[in-house]
């Protein structure tokens, strides 16, 4: 592959949001902007190329939270949220919760926004 074609491919992937380094987490604000745009499309959102990308981001954030929960438990620290066994939060409820967060959360990683929504829904008492 030529140098020019390689640069063009990297530029295209970057524009598509696919060339983010593994350490770069999508922010709550970016996720919401893209997810709310999809929500506005109704059922047609399922055909959008953005849908699988956002689904992967949500899954990554969920996996990060599970790992963080296990690490906190191993360290003897209390969990951030106490989700009852067998409970789960649907994507629409999660989006609503993210939309209700203070503006200060918009620049935080999506994982942090998810954690705050879960803590709001399922506080530990």
Percent strand: under 5%
Can you give the mean pLDDT?
83
Largest sheet: none
Alpha-carbon distance between the two ends: 59 Å
Task: Note the total helix count.
Answer: 5
Number of E strands: 0
> Can you tell me the number of structural domains?
1
Quaternary structure: single chain
Order of helices and strands: HHHHH
- Given as residue ranges, the uncertain stretches (5+ residues, pLDDT < 50) are 1-23
- Portion of residues in helices? 55-70%
Shape: elongated
User: Rg to the nearest angstrom?
Assistant: 17 Å
The secondary structure category is: mainly alpha
How would you describe this protein?
It is a single chain. This protein has helices at residues 3-16, 28-40, 50-74, 91-100, 110-121. The chain has five helices and no strands. It has one domain. Residues 1-23 have low confidence and may be disordered. It is an all-alpha fold and 125 residues long.
Question: TL;DR?
Answer:
With 125 residues, this protein is mainly alpha-helical. Helices cover 59% and strands 0% of the residues. The chain starts with a helix and ends with a helix.
Structural descriptors:
single chain, 125 residues, mainly alpha, 5 helices, elongated
Write the layout of secondary structure elements.
Layout: H1 3-16, H2 28-40, H3 50-74, H4 91-100, H5 110-121
Helix pairs in contact: 2-3, 3-5
